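Entry, Tuesday afternoon. Goal for today is a structural model of the target with flavin-adenine dinucleotide bound, before we commit to ordering more compound. Inputs were pasted exactly as handed over by J.K., no edits. I checked the ligand SMILES twice against the vendor sheet because last time a stereocentre got dropped in transcription.
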Amino acid sequence: MGKNYVVVAEIRGGKLRQVSLEAIRAAAFTKDNGDQTAAVLIGSQIANLADELSRYIDGKVYLIDHTDLEHYNPEAYLAAVSPLFTELNPQAVFFGHTAMGRDLAPLVAAHLQAGQISDVTAIERAGADVLYTRPLFAGKAFEQKRFLDGPQIVTVRPNNIPAAEETGAKADIVSVRYTPPSDLRSVIRDVVRKTSGKVDLTEAKIVVSGGRGVKSAEGFKPLKELAEVLNGAVGASRGACDAGYCDYALQIGQTGKVVTPEIYIACGISGAIQHLAGMSQSRVIIAINKDPEAPIFKVADYGIVGDLFEVVPLLTAEFKKVLA
Ligand SMILES: Cc1cc2nc3c(=O)[nH]c(=O)nc-3n(C[C@H](O)[C@H](O)[C@H](O)COP(=O)(O)OP(=O)(O)OC[C@H]3O[C@@H](n4cnc5c(N)ncnc54)[C@H](O)[C@@H]3O)c2cc1C
């Protein structure tokens, strides 16, 4: 029996999150021959998702299904996984670097007396070592780290590591009993979602972002149309959020969300360093700005100097034709 490389999978909007499949790929790459990947799925009425997850795992899927676990609650989720982790004695535990992963991973690390490497964007092997790359100083530098000893806790940044593929078989699903702690200090009563976008911003393959140049809430309409045609998500600069054109949930940057989509389309965004911190690792950056001197053009792969209210509808119409 090899060691366990466990992924704590995550559910969003009734679906498995893409980053959980990326974490499985990371776990599979990191383990040695004879070790196995396992997954833990926590939630309420999620047997169907456990079944889906079982197609990506070569060890076991541990299902912790309880009405109290419908929404993420750090104390409840830690109580749900702690006995299991004590029993499994994992060599490594992987999380998505999401709001939940960032919160739960250090709690699990404390429980297992483990080291943690967070926000990993690449993993490589160097002899017997596994090297984890992570950005520093808002993406201006990178460092490579390795663990000296186990257990190991890793969080992976969405959209950087390719997703796991189906194994061609189904892993066993093991139901794990959850006993709600009697001393929970908080419970979730309700979740109010501010964004209604179909695609999650941090996992979107294409992001269409607007800045102060969009000029009003109404001005975001053409950007939403472009995002819709490309099956992407809408983001924003803090300038646009501060001006009240859109919700802060869309803010990208140092004090907002970090995104690494395949294509980032910046519309009417000047390219302040704090904005770049959240999007400069995108694979292809397209900037639309009427000022040819705008700093965003320094990081852009493609630059369009022009009025976004002319350019964006033209792009939408053209993509519609090409994708039809
Ligand atoms: C501590 C701190 C944290 C911060 N965190 C963040 C963060 O997380 N995210 C973030 O984004 N910012 C952040 N900021 C703010 C940041 O410094 C910038 O002020 C902000 O990014 C500017 O937003 P903007 O590019 O939309 O606006 P502006 O800088 O005003 O740029 C608007 C751009 O739109 C162009 N434009 C105008 N009209 C049109 C048109 N019709 N067509 C095409 N282009 C047009 C203009 O040429 C201009 O380049 C932070 C600042 C501080 C101090």
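DSSP finds nine helices and 17 strands in the chain.
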